[in-house]
Amino acid sequence: MSIKNIKKKYFNKKSFKKIKKFFSEKGLKSLLIFLVIIASFLSGILFDKVTILKNAENIKNTEVLENNKQTEDLTRLQDKVLKENYVFKIKWGDLGKRMVEDGVIDKEKFAQAITGENQLPKDLDKYFSDGQDKIEINPQNAQFWVDILWGLGLANKNRILEEGAMKQNGDTSNFASTGGWTLGPEDPMSIYSRYSYINLSQREQEIVEEIAGNIYRPCCGNSTAFPDCNHGMAMLGLIELMVSQGFSKDEIYKTALAFNTYWFPNTYLNTAYYLDINGKDYNKISPKEILSENFSSAMGAQAIAKESEGVEWPALQSSGGSCGA
Known about the structure:
It is a single chain. The protein is mainly alpha-helical and 325 residues long. Helix content is 62%, strand content 2%. It starts with a helix and ends in a 19-residue tail after the last helix.
């Protein structure tokens, strides 16, 4: 009962007349007893109200602490997955320059796709000059590396393109990685597997095919051995480049995961979360396993994403764009 209703029921004019009559008959002692009872009654109401308010405050504080802990946990996981940048000692050389000269890339179209302007900033434009002996990737240039490696994978002559799933699964020109290539002056199929930018021995070709078959991407259900979208074609170019320069399989898987992580950040954050709630450390799982069909294919990534529904990650800066642009 509220204070207002108590006043209305017990402290009206009629009630006071009864109380006055009662105490004129019973005396001062009874009055004191009555006042003690009333005071106890009112203090009980006040105590209940204070308790309710205190409990509400405790619940609120608990929720704040839990939210802060979850934010700390998510930040910790994000720091494990997304690095500020990677610098790989992969010799890029003059590949960008050669692709422009051969009509694989229209530099102005390319710059427009990346920045919305007709020129690239210096830190990206350098990859179209001579003698680049390393590759740096970070959240800000993730799209650049999708696109330039896409051009490399599409144009470089390789058995995967000429005899593999691209040829065996329909019209080769209709895939996102071929028909979707609009960053050059030529028709995509006129540059398809045309230029010998990366020369591989028979053994190196076998390693490329092995690794490509083990690396999946969350936008598709296919491995890099079937590079039917831009991410797959870009990954093929990266694998060919690293194999030709003698990198170990472990180094290639580690590098491939770094690139995939920038291209699909949410997928790998969800993977880290999934592993964490199952008592596993993301950094202690081999990159090859994380890049496998179970984790990195579209179906695998979707299944894992269900385990992290409702999780809100801090703002993400990197993205590899859609499958054909």
